[in-house]
Amino acid sequence: MSQKEIINKTKDFVKETLSDAEGGHDWFHTLRVYNNALLVAKSEPVDTFIVSLGSLLHDIADSKFHNGDETVGPKVAREFLFNLNADSVIIEHVVNIIENISFKGGNEAQKFKSPELDVIQDADRLDAIGAIGIARCFNYGGFKNRALYNPDIEPNLNMTKAEYKASNAPTINHFYEKLLLLKDLMNTITGKRLAENRHAFMEEYLNQFYNEWNGKL
Asked: Secondary structure of the chain in the HEC alphabet?
């Protein structure tokens, strides 16, 4: 089977698997990450086949929707690629990407690094910031029935991985606990450049939000 055929089958598999997923982690999120990854990859020395597969499968079974189990996604991806007779080296690389792409509170060291992971991680983080990032943030907050904002609950910037995963703080807090941190965590030159504008948009949005909240406009 050619690389193009494997990529097309992977797209079909992901689209079907995520057909009923939460709106911020659905097929369209995956498609945006895939397109972002290919854009960033143009200026990086990477294997675009691995970038394609890793970006398409990075959220195939997000632990947030599987009782926090981080083994489900890698297992699903491994079995799918194995059934397509993909090369074992490629399968292991893609699985390692899935296991290490998550933010996880931003305080946990990655156990695996590669240029392809750097590209996909930047692509995923780009979709978490800017206009779409804001929309995804509030969509997930609504999905979890979280408050929009509570000025009495301050953001926690020193959460452990377990605390981050268990947090039920207001949605606005997530901007400070993750979204506004991502610009400085980008791996690639292209990722850093694209993040600048999206970061600035979020700062502008928050300024408007607080003005409206406090009746200043």
From this structure: CCHHHHHHHHHHHHHHHCCCCCHHHCHHHHHHHHHHHHHHHCCCCCCHHHHHHHHHHCCCCCHHHCCCCCCHHHHHHHHHHHHCCCCHHHHHHHHHHHHHCCCHHHCCCCCCCCHHHHHHHHHHHHCCCHHHHHHHHHHHHHHCCCCCCCCCCCCCCCCCHHHHHHCCCCHHHHHHHCHHHHHHHCCCHHHHHHHHHHHHHHHHHHHHHHHHHCCCC
pTM over 0.85: yes
Structure tokens at 189: 């030159």
| Residue pLDDT, tens place only, 3-29 | 999 999 999 999 999 998 887 889 999
Contact 106, 163 (CB under 8 A): no
User: HEC states along 83-143?
Assistant: HCCCCHHHHHHHHHHHHHCCCHHHCCCCCCCCHHHHHHHHHHHHCCCHHHHHHHHHHHHHH
Among the listed residues 25, 158, 149, 1, the one whose alpha carbon sits nearest the alpha carbon of residue 80: 1
- CB-based contacts of 156: which residues, under 8 Å, 6+ apart? 163, 167, 169, 173, 177
Characterize 106-129 residue by residue with b for buried, 16 or more Cβ atoms within 10 angstroms of its Cβ, and e for exposed.
eeeeeeeebbbbbbbbbbbbbbbb
